[in-house]
Specification:
Elements: E1 2-6, E2 11-17, E3 24-30, H1 33-36, E4 38-40, E5 46-48, H2 51-62, H3 68-83, E6 91-93, H4 94-108, H5 110-119
Length: 122
């Protein structure tokens, strides 16, 4: 019936109608990164991309904040939205992910940026 792309969260919002009962409902569709993207750490090591690992690394950098979980969730969505442009052949390169995440954290919180870079050297 009706669809809208949600640019910030990289999701699609859809209004649908049940063919049996004629009831209206809404769905929010997003990509399953675990099955669709690869993460390349080095030339020899590639694994399935895991959003949860990105979230944990950002949360660890932001744990000094009172709203660390909410901040890490929003920042993870922001990183995933920005990293889309750097994906080549369904692969996210380690250097690109660190660079984008560090840039976003630097704008958000300098302490989180410093903490993140202490554990994720390029």
């Amino acid at each position: 019936m009706n669809s809208r792309l949600q640019k910030k969260s990289n999701t699609v919002w859809r209004r649908r109608k049940c063919l049996d009962c004629q009831g209206l409902f809404t769905t929010l569709e997003s990509a399953d990164y675990y099955t669709s993207l690869l993460f390349r750490r080095s030339e020899k090591y590639t694994e399935a991309f895991q959003r949860d690992k990105l979230f944990i690394s950002i949360h660890e950098s932001c744990k000094h904040r009172k709203q660390a979980v909410e901040a890490a969730t929003a920042l993870t969505d922001t990183v995933l939205g920005r990293i889309r442009t750097k994906i080549h052949d369904a692969t996210v390169m380690r250097e690109d992910l660190i660079s984008v995440t560090a840039d976003i954290l630097k704008r958000y919180d300098k302490a989180a940026h410093t903490s993140y870079l202490a554990y994720h050297q390029l």
